[in-house]
Write a structure and sequence with these properties.
The chain has ten helices and eleven strands. With 359 residues, the protein is an alpha+beta fold. It comes from Astatotilapia calliptera.
Length: 359
């Protein structure tokens, strides 16, 4: 991931990571950062922490503004063993290697669901894990799904390294056209050496089997093939991986199924169930996960809030609507964001004497 600047000011951040990995200069040591995966919180300070390890979030969008750019390099110089020497070496180089840009996966009609999920995970992995200490894409969990999908599109355009929460949003975007696959957020809180660590993956369910997509420093804390019979089996698989790194799994948070409509204005339900794993017996954990699985299945039958486009179309009813036609009331959840201005459609003088349709 060496950062280079083009004439438009858009930074190719994929190169600095490639350089750091090649030279063995990752921003982590075996006993500290390599075992830690950060999950960006909904709100908070500009500098976020996980397990005592700070990281920044790029809130300026793209191209990255100069203040965010310089702050990232100061942060690298502060936390990397080589300090400012590394930053100067990279920024002063004139022959930086070009990093190939991964291609968004495409499929043949005969490609099976497990093969598609493996291709998506391969694409996420090719973006590489972001070790710079600055998260490039700001993910606010409270934003509607349609806004998060816009960020996912930007991830595919920029092709920059990502962290675990960004990978979840990207995974949702890349599986939206797979109605046979249900997706849900699955996050973990673990403890090691007195510090707590947060990680999140995208759980998937199809054909009666569970799996996961994601990004992590550790190979066994992200992708899980679609082969686990129950949600309990999937959670225990992650718990075993945490034990392998001497982490104690404290909590598991599981969300509801996410809508496949990329224009949906509903919010992702991130924490439908919060389970204290270390306080539950295996049987209690099994019952709780079975209950959550039933809750997710029930949601499939419930209609999701319509997209803004459909909402607009339905609200523009005909003046000749019959008395038996129900009038659709738009709930608070379905309303368009307040930033969108309402526009009055221009009507002829004859129409002005009749009904006025508000768009």
């Amino acid at each position: 991931l060496i950062f280079t600047c083009c004439d438009t000011g858009r930074f190719c951040a994929r190169t600095l990571l490639g350089f750091l990995v090649k030279e063995g200069m990752l921003l982590a040591t075996v006993g500290s950062l390599e075992e830690r995966d950060e999950e960006q919180e909904d709100e908070g300070d500009e500098e976020l922490r996980d397990g005592g390890v700070p990281f920044y979030v790029n809130r300026s969008g793209f191209p990255v503004d100069e203040e965010t750019w310089e702050r990232m390099w100061r942060h690298v110089a502060r936390i990397h063993p080589s300090g400012e020497a590394l930053a100067k070496e990279i920024r002063g180089a004139t022959d930086l290697p070009k990093i190939p840009i991964p291609s968004v996966p495409t499929y043949q009609p005969t490609t099976t669901i497990p093969q598609r999920l493996e291709a998506i995970q391969k694409y996420i992995r090719e973006l590489q894990y972001n070790h710079t200490g600055t998260q490039f894409f700001e993910i606010k969990k409270s934003r509607p799904l349609t806004a998060l999908m816009d960020i996912a599109k930007e991830m595919t355009r920029e092709a920059l390294p990502i962290k675990c929460l960004e990978a979840v949003i990207l995974g949702i975007y890349l599986t939206n056209n797979m109605p046979a696959v249900e997706r849900f957020p699955l996050s973990f809180k673990s403890q090691f050496s007195g510090n707590h660590f947060h990680h999140i993956v995208l759980g998937v369910h199809s054909g009666g089997r569970f799996g996961a997509l994601g990004m992590s420093r550790r190979e066994d804390l992200m992708f899980k093939p679609l082969e686990f019979r129950t949600l309990l089996d999937l959670v225990q698989e992650f718990e075993g991986a945490y034990r392998g790194y001497w982490h104690t799994l404290r909590k598991v948070k599981i969300g509801q199924y996410v809508s496949h409509d990329p224009h949906s204005v509903e919010q992702i339900e991130w924490k439908h169930s919060i389970l204290d794993v270390d306080k539950l017996t295996k049987e209690e954990l099994r019952k709780e996960l079975e209950r959550h699985t039933r809750d997710m299945r029930l949601k499939i039958g419930k209609p999701a809030p319509p997209s803004p486009t459909k909402d607009r179309r339905n609200s523009m009813g005909s003046p000749l609507r019959g008395p038996g036609s129900p009038i659709r009331r738009i709930s608070r959840v379905e309303r368009r964001p307040s930033g969108d201005k309402k526009v009055l459609e221009q009507k002829s003088s004859t129409d002005m004497n009749g009904y006025q349709i508000r768009v």
